[in-house]
Amino acid sequence: MSEGEPLVGRVCENGITTLTLNQPQRRNSLSMAMLEALSAELDALAGDAATRVVVLAAQGPTFCAGHDLREIREQFDHPDFQLALFNQCSKVMQQIVALPKPVIARIIGVATAAGCQLVASCDLAVAADTARFATPGVNIGLFCSTPMVALSRNVSRKHAMEMLLTGEMISAARAEEIGLVNRAVDEQVLDETVYRMARTIADKSGHTLRIGKEAFYRQLEMPLSDAYAYTSSVMAENIQAHDAREGICAFLDKRKPDWKD
């Protein structure tokens, strides 16, 4: 990152906004400043009508190495800062889940600890086949307790516990196998794969995407009968919207729908 450049870059094109972690010399670590910058961008995107899909990327050979351990060491004697740091990180992860736009992680290099948490918090993730992932806090005496919240909601308990207890790196292929990422692809076609996925999603009704993403995460935490009752009411409400009626009519009439979002 050159002097004067933002910690998080932002570019919007054709409804797809790319947020780029932009501190490669610090391995794009989640310092307080980086978390605050990312939080501000997510806040801005929540109400941005021009953005239909978000891609989360990073500059340099490391996607995100987790928290900035140098910063943590400097603040050893300030427990209030440590709690504020982890609370801010948790806020950002929840902002990603609550964002009314789909978020796709684009991963090159290593995503460890809170960086792995960042990947797990995104709705979708595509990794270069050379990427690697870990929750290695156990190796330095600081268990990855907050990263495990997102991790355990993406992969099975035993796979999550294996990563958390061993702290070992896993390959992109293994990450795809256990469900941490959607796809592991050759780095040469990473952008093509990510942005083809983003364009496919961006072509949908923004209103429908907002409803669906919120409902997905809410029903996950419910008992089965409650989840069906909730999603039935969501669908009944959804069908009253212009885009649902337009989509059904367009399908039956064999034409392209005219979304109003």
TrEMBL record:
It holds the Pfam family ECH_1. One of its GO terms (molecular function) is enoyl-CoA hydratase activity. It comes from the Bacteria. Signal peptide: none annotated. Gene3D superfamilies: 2-enoyl-CoA Hydratase, Chain A, domain 1, Lyase 2-enoyl-coa Hydratase, Chain A, domain 2. The keyword Repeat does not apply. Transmembrane segments: none annotated. Keywords: Fatty acid metabolism, Lipid metabolism, Lyase, Transit peptide. The keyword Nucleotide-binding does not apply. May play a role in fatty acid biosynthesis and insulin sensitivity. Belongs to the enoyl-CoA hydratase/isomerase family. This is Enoyl-CoA hydratase domain-containing protein 3, mitochondrial.
